[in-house]
Design goal:
There is one protein chain. With 430 residues, the chain is α/β, with parallel strands linked by helices. The chain has two domains: 3-139 and 306-340, Periplasmic binding protein-like II (D-Maltodextrin-Binding Protein, domain 2, 3-Layer(aba) Sandwich), CATH 3.40.190; 141-303 and 344-425, Periplasmic binding protein-like II (D-Maltodextrin-Binding Protein, domain 2). It is built from 15 helices and 15 strands. Strands 1, 2, 3, 6, 7, 9, 10, 11, 12, 13 and 14 form an eleven-stranded mixed β-sheet that branches. A two-stranded antiparallel sheet has the order 4-5. Strands 8-15 form a two-stranded parallel sheet. Helix 9 (196-207) crosses helix 10 (226-238) and helix 14 (385-400) packs antiparallel against helix 15 (406-421). The two termini are 42 Å apart.
């Protein structure tokens, strides 16, 4: 469904043209949830909202949203710019803080305790200047899923720590499985389509090789450098060799479907501390899988931060109730994670996990090279981040499809980013 059509239905559902709710009726908080109907979202949200109503008497109406992060961004922008009384609570992507800063309340005065328990890299992604745009809710991080049974079959005692190791292992396992009759088996599947996931994957490649964050915190554009160019060349080499030719069109669910079918040895995925226990393993009685940090390079491992937070519209008709809902959901999620993470998942290996995924203390001592979590340059880009990311996606995708050579694409991207942001070029900071 097109954004305009869905937005029209939503506005009618909200009753934006109607009079205010009668003071005799219970207050209803409208909640535009970015995770609405997402298969891998935290289970039990509907029950949580019912429990909130039972505890407070405040009703909650969840609102529909379109598929795809770019479509969602367009819808959120249109609603917030209209400045209506609803929605009251918005779930926002971790990269939207700078884009929507002016439309959202500062939550710092209300959630100081919750904020103090957040990891700095997570809290910083929702902070614009001194303002807390949203309270972090679910933090996701890019990881590598691997077939532990296949690693053992081919003599590997541990998953790859570097991209070169990944390439060698994927090549060998792919050849061996195809020789056994699995002609459509691949070594590595990832998200190479025209989507925000490609920005995340590219950032992981270049940060691990000292290629910088695309735009640094000091407002210098660093993407046009030899290290980044080499990572783009390497990824282009994977297409059609250890990765399907169609990987250049894969988005999240495409890559995940190949993984779930048991047709891949390695898979770049998104994981959070609570979803470690709900990951889908490929079918087969002998199949075992594991989770680890993404491979690294000369700068170590880098895992992109994802996730979402909860924000309150500045034009909300019910700001007090909206804040109460956020506090309730954050507390419920904390209790859910504490309960779920008390026992490690069965039939799953956890190896050198990113720092943010530390729900199981018994595994901490064995981690030698955990991956660092890196944020996309959304705060420094502010309202321009969407344009920055789209430009980066186009440039990298043109390399993956063979339309441009990496050096030419990186140079052209640098010029485009200068035009978008007004920033100057500079060297990577990492």
């Amino acid at each position: 469904m097109k954004i305009v059509g869905l937005l029209g239905i939503l506005l009618v559902a909200l009753g934006l043209g109607c009079s205010r709710q009668s003071s005799r009726e219970p207050v209803t908080v409208t909640f535009l949830d970015i995770e609405y109907d997402t298969p891998d979202r935290l289970p039990g949200l509907a029950q949580d909202l019912l429990a909130f109503t039972q505890e407070t008497g405040i009703r909650v109406k969840r609102l529909p949203r379109p598929e795809g992060s770019l479509n969602q961004l367009a819808m959120w922008r249109e609603l917030l710019q209209k400045g209506g009384a609803t929605p009251d609570v918005y779930g926002i992507d971790v990269i939207w803080s700078g884009i929507f800063n002016q439309y959202l309340l500062d939550l710092k005065p209300y959630f100081a305790t919750e904020l103090s328990s957040q990891r700095p890299v997570v809290a910083a992604s929702y902070t614009v200047g001194d303002k807390l745009v949203a309270i972090p809710r679910h933090a996701y991080v890019g990881v590598l899923l691997y077939r532990a049974d296949l690693l053992r079959r081919y003599g590997y005692r541990e998953p790859p720590k570097t991209w070169d190791e990944l390439e060698r292992m994927a090549t060998r396992i792919q050849a061996g499985e195809r020789a056994k009759g699995q002609k459509d088996f691949w070594g590595y599947v990832w998200q190479g389509g025209v989507s925000e996931d490609l920005t995340c994957a590219g950032l992981e490649w270049q940060m691990s090789e000292r290629g910088g964050r695309i735009i640094e915190d000091d407002r210098t554009i660093s993407v046009n450098n030899p290290q980044t160019i080499r990572t783009w060349q390497r990824a282009a080499r994977w297409v059609g060799s250890i990765s399907p030719p169609g990987v250049v069109a894969y988005e999240k669910w495409d890559a995940e479907n190949v993984w779930k079918s048991g047709k891949a040895a390695f898979h770049r995925a998104w994981v959070s501390d609570y979803s470690l226990i709900t990951l889908h393993t490929p079918p087969g009685n002998a199949t075992q899988y594991g989770v680890t940090s993404l491979p690294g390079g000369i700068a170590g491992r880098a895992n992109t931060l994802g996730g979402n937070g909860l924000a309150v519209s500045r034009t909300s008709a019910h700001p007090r109730e909206a804040l109460e809902l956020i506090g309730f959901l954050v507390r419920r999620d904390h209790l859910m994670r504490a309960s779920a993470n008390s026992v490690p998942p069965k039939e799953q290996e956890l190896y050198d996990l990113p720092e943010i995924l530390e729900p199981y203390p018994q595994f901490a001592a064995s981690r030698q090279h955990p991956g660092r979590v890196v944020a996309r340059p959304s705060i420094v880009s502010g309202e321009k981040y969407e344009d920055v990311s789209r430009a980066y996606i186009r440039a990298l995708h043109s390399v993956l499809t063979g339309e441009q050579i990496p050096a030419v694409a990186a140079a052209a991207l640098e010029k485009e980013l200068i035009q978008i942001t007004g920033f100057r070029p500079g060297a990577p900071s990492n």
